[in-house]
Design brief:
By secondary structure, the protein is an alpha/beta fold. The protein is 36% helix and 15% strand.
Length: 447
């Protein structure tokens, strides 16, 4: 069979351009096999069938066209061509589209776009999978705070954000991409738990906007940082800004993977340090055989995969220490490097002897669970018991020792381990007109 382009098409009923493409292919005036789809679900099913497709020609007003659908097509080597009657309204290329056409495109324009972005398919052509498009390298650090329920992890996240914002952070050196770390960085506290408590702990009078709105904004666009900043809440008494969490636990079903990744990337560009209050459940389809479980744990999995430091909070009882070690073991199994884990014991006794016993117990339990690798883990951070309810109720800063010691411990872990690499590495950046004006050829090297 001769080579031709195999193109999937998706548009609303009676779209003129959709009918024209069908007529061109039926008349054999284009080397195209045109397969019409009636919904995004059918298009996804065809992409997952294993058959190679050259491109997907999709109308911009089709429900469900977002960065997740584009990424799924790209992951199997299918270029996405978006047909938009207002191409200036949204930059589809930022979402991964290979080209944008107007509804009045001609046969020549379609063929030119296919030739530049898609591959011909023959009878025995083998199309290798392309890597999933990577998330751009973040500009700020991401610190995750997690732990079993009832250990005070959300309060520790507040203390950490306050401590970093107060200047108890890395002074000197360089951050990601060579940027100098400020002594008093901008800090963003993001509530990424399924059961979100930060709104209650901050006495938020409104629950909108929150993480749901931020993720939804990233499904079909790349919002400006100024617009994102307006969707956060300033906590001036403690020096950071707050992103509210899910309003109901069941709302995890509205989140899509690529949109969540893009949201985290934007949040890291919005602040020098993002402190994420997140749950510790990271099971996915590989462990449970259930895609629904992986999607439910999407916020935790996406956060843990890119976190520079993960602080795991436990409490000093027998059950609390076992739960702390179990959580650390789960995170190690997920792929978090042990040198990036910081065990934290809240409500720890003040006696140095008792604290030493707690640290040895954690080390022994972890060695029995994961082996000799536990020796590379950071020492346990002990936080004394304090009555913080009055400070939380009044919206006042937390007592200085707690934020200071927490921030210093996290800074020490980051100084030793360095910044984490976002899965997939950096995505190639599209060059804007005029960007190459400052480049000059090296001596002896031609263009």
């Amino acid at each position: 069979m001769r080579e031709r382009y195999v193109v999937l098409g998706l548009a609303r009923a009676r779209a003129d351009w959709f009918r024209s493409v069908g007529q061109w292919t039926n008349a054999a005036v284009l080397p195209v096999e045109f397969l019409r789809c009636v919904s995004t679900e059918e298009l996804r099913a065809r992409l997952r069938s294993g058959r190679p497709f050259s491109a997907a020609l999709i109308a911009a007003d089709v429900p469900g066209l977002d960065r997740d659908l584009v990424a799924e097509a790209r992951s199997v080597g299918t270029a996405v061509l978006v047909v938009d009657d207002e191409p200036a309204r949204r930059d589809w290329r930022d979402l991964g589209a290979a080209a944008v056409l107007t509804p009045t495109f001609s046969r020549e324009q379609l063929l030119e776009s296919l030739g530049a972005t898609a591959e011909l398919v023959g009878g025995a052509t083998l199309v290798e999978d392309e890597p999933v498009p990577a998330v751009s390298a973040p500009a700020g650090h991401l610190v995750a705070v997690t732990g079993p329920g009832g250990t005070g992890a959300s309060t520790v996240a507040i203390a950490l954000a306050q401590g970093i914002a107060a200047g108890t952070w890395l002074v000197g050196g360089t951050g990601v991409e060579g940027r100098v770390r400020p002594a008093t960085p901008s800090v963003l506290l993001a509530d990424l738990c399924l059961t979100a408590d930060q709104a209650m702990l901050h006495d938020a009078r409104t629950l909108v906007p929150g993480i749901q709105e931020l993720v939804e904004a990233h499904r079909t666009a790349v919002p400006r940082l100024a617009d994102l900043d307006e969707q956060t809440f300033e906590v001036s008494e403690r020096g950071y800004r707050l992103v509210l969490g899910l309003r109901r636990r069941r709302h995890w079903a509205t989140l899509r993977p690529r949109a969540v990744e893009a949201t985290l990337d934007s949040l890291q560009r919005l602040a020098d340090v993002v402190v994420a209050d997140v749950e510790s459940d990271v099971e996915g389809e590989a462990e449970t055989g259930s895609l629904e479980v992986e999607e439910r744990n999407l916020l935790a999995r996406a956060t843990m995969a890119r976190a520079d430091v993960v602080a795991v909070v436990g409490e000093p009882s027998m059950k609390g220490l076992v739960a702390l070690v179990r959580t650390i073991a789960d995170l190690l199994g997920f792929g978090v490097p042990i040198e990036r884990l910081l065990p934290v014991v809240s409500r720890s006794p003040r006696s140095p002897r008792q604290r030493g016993e707690l640290g040895r117990t954690v080390a022994e339990l972890l060695a029995a669970s994961v082996g000799a690798a536990s020796g590379r883990m950071c020492p346990v951070l002990h936080l004394p018991a304090r009555d913080l309810d009055p400070h939380l109720r009044d919206g006042a800063p937390l007592p200085a020792p707690l934020p200071r010691s927490t921030a210093r411990a996290v800074a020490a872990v980051l100084e030793r381990a360095g910044s984490a690499t976002v899965p997939g590495g950096a995505e190639p950046e599209r060059i804007q007109p005029g960007r190459l004006s400052g480049f000059t050829p090296q001596e002896g090297v031609g263009w």
